[in-house]
């Protein structure tokens, strides 16, 4: 029996999906049962990297989501609209949904899952986080017995690629970003990658799965990588760290009944940490749960083939259920989302972490003493203080703190900023 899909979008990921479906030999036999019924795109005249009958194409995407012949709508457009409306319309028309759109799910998950549960259809999204890495399904199913303590991930391929090239090849930020765009890793608007928004969407989704509650996307604390400079990468290296954009979800008591830390920011990761060696477009998600302990998911986090691998596996999942007669509107609980409450998030000022800060100081006697006094006054204890270089006649002092409350650290910094000996504080980064 053939199952018909309507493909919304034939860009990087859509093309990858179509390539797998048109080349089923040697793959799971279910793939032969999936046919592409319609393809929705913006331009009918664009040259494409795949040969599909022109009859399949339309620019009226509404036709696809209401087509009675279509079983599964695969949304690979990106962006919030028209993706959200089309997903909802498809659900209203009884279609199952497969999407890789983390932006839509992180913001409209409640609306979409409520509609899907009422309509008795699945909304699967393995491609949305970690590209080809299986992480959504493991969190929903294989790790279900665990009380999750933390999820820490490198979940944006573009920024990991940029940071890796800046670290290993001393490459220029803009050049590497252009390369990541050419390779199909970056979002249509790469601001979402560079400013950490894409990683924030992804950690909101992972946290919701791991900690069993909804997350308000706008509450996820988020800093991108624009402020990471070659100077900091170099200092981090000398101090035994690699700078990575981390997405962090931590339960303060290991369950959602208490507050949850949820944040994305560039982080100095000790070179010995498992996430320190994840380079290029690779992503990794380190989950710690009780009783399992640590488990790390690793693989290609973006790009045509890896993401299509995850999307097609979701399509197959639905096809497998439908072909075994499971179309009775009773959804498999481990494949759906039925969260009702929202997790409480810890405000960033209450966060406890280590910090790295770089100060440019006028070379007057006693600067380090002044820094120490101000930090001490605000109960910030220092792990190391180094003065290595000079920049334009200003001494460069780098400080790494012990674990401190972010609020205390910020208070100390605002006092330090007003010291006459301090010219500026070009960088402040958190340390894992
Ligand atoms: N690229 C990646 O590595 C990954 C992407 N994702 C997610 O997958 C989704 C797709 O990404 P990607 O394939 O890179 O995106 P692309 O920009 O490469 O492709 C988008 C596709 O959607 C079509 N499209 C976009 N807007 C409209 C519209 N308003 N009406 C009709 N067609 C439209 C475009 O048509 P046309 O071809 O005519 O321009 C194009 O075919 C996004 O949600 C992204 O976040 C997830 C993981 C990895
Ligand atoms: N732009 C994203 C694509 C995958 O989600 C990334 O770079 O990771
Ligand atoms: Na994935």
UniProtKB/TrEMBL annotation:
Leading EC class: oxidoreductase
Segments forming domain ACT: 356-430
Query: What InterPro entries does the entry give?
Result: ACT-like_dom_sf, ACT_dom, Asp/hSer_DH_NAD-bd, HDH, HDH_cat, HDH_CS, NAD(P)-bd_dom_sf
Where on this chain does NADP(+) bind? 8-15
Q: Which GO terms describe its biological process?
A: methionine biosynthetic process; threonine biosynthetic process
Assigned EC number: 1.1.1.3
**Active-site positions on this chain:** 202 (proton donor)
State a single Gene Ontology molecular function: homoserine dehydrogenase activity
Instruction: Show the SUPFAM superfamilies listed in the entry.
Output: ACT-like, Glyceraldehyde-3-phosphate dehydrogenase-like, C-terminal domain, NAD(P)-binding Rossmann-fold domains
Question: What are the names of the required cofactors?
Answer: a metal cation
Reading the lineage from the top rank, the first entry is: Bacteria
Under catalytic activity, the entry for this protein gives: L-homoserine + NADP(+) = L-aspartate 4-semialdehyde + NADPH + H(+)
Q: Which Pfam families match?
A: ACT, Homoserine_dh, NAD_binding_3
Q: Tell me the route in metabolism or biology where this protein functions.
A: Amino-acid biosynthesis; L-threonine biosynthesis; L-threonine from L-aspartate: step 3/5; Amino-acid biosynthesis; L-methionine biosynthesis via de novo pathway; L-homoserine from L-aspartate: step 3/3
What residues does NADPH bind to?
102
Instruction: List residues binding L-homoserine.
Output: 187
What family name appears in the similarity comment? Belongs to the homoserine dehydrogenase family.
Task: Name the PANTHER family on file.
Answer: HOMOSERINE DEHYDROGENASE (PTHR43331)
What is the designated name of this protein?
Homoserine dehydrogenase
What is the scientific name of the source organism?
Aphanothece hegewaldii CCALA 016
């Amino acid at each position: 029996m053939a199952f018909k899909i309507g493909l919304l979008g034939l860009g990087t990921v859509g093309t990858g999906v179509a390539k797998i479906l048109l080349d089923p030999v040697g793959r799971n036999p279910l793939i032969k049962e999936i046919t592409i019924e319609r393809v929705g795109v913006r331009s009918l005249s664009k040259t494409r990297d795949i040969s599909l009958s022109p009859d399949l194409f339309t620019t009226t995407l509404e036709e696809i989501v209401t087509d009675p012949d279509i079983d599964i709508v695969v949304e690979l457009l990106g962006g919030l609209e028209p993706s959200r409306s089309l997903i909802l319309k498809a659900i209203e028309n009884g279609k199952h949904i497969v999407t890789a759109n983390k932006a839509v799910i992180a913001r409209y998950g409640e609306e979409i899952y409520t509609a899907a549960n009422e309509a008795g259809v699945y909304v699967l999204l393995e491609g949305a986080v970690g590209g080809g890495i299986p992480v959504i399904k493991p969190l929903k199913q294989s790790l279900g017995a665990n009380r999750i303590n933390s999820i820490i991930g490198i979940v944006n391929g573009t920024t990991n690629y940029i940071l890796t090239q800046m670290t290993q090849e001393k490459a220029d930020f803009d050049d590497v970003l252009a390369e990541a765009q050419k390779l199909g890793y970056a979002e249509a608007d790469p601001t979402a990658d560079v400013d950490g928004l894409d990683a924030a969407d992804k950690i909101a989704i992972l946290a919701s799965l791991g900690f069993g509650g909804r997350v308000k996307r706008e509450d996820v604390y988020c800093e991108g990588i624009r402020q990471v400079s070659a100077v900091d990468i170099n200092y981090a290296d000398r101090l035994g760290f690699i700078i990575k954009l981390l997405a962090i979800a931590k339960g303060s008591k290991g369950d959602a009944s208490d507050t949850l830390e949820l944040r994305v920011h560039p982080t100095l990761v000790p070179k010995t940490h498992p996430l320190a060696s994840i380079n290029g477009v690779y992503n990794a998600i380190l989950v710690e749960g009780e009783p399992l302990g640590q488990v790390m998911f690793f693989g290609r986090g973006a790009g045509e083939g890896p993401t299509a691998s995850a999307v097609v596996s979701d399509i197959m999942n639905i096809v497998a259920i439908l072909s075994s007669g499971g179309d009775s509107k009773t959804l498999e609980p481990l494949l759906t989302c039925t969260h009702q409450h929202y997790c409480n998030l810890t405000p960033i000022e209450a966060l406890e972490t280590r910090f790295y800060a770089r100060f440019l100081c006028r070379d007057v006697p006693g600067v380090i003493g002044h820094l120490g006094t101000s930090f001490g006054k605000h109960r910030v204890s220092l792990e190391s203080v180094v003065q290595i270089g000079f920049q334009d006649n200003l001494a460069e002092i780098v400080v790494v703190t012990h674990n401190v409350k972010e609020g205390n650290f910020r208070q100390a910094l605002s006092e330090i900023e007003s010291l006459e000996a301090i010219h500026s504080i070009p960088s402040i980064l958190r340390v894992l």
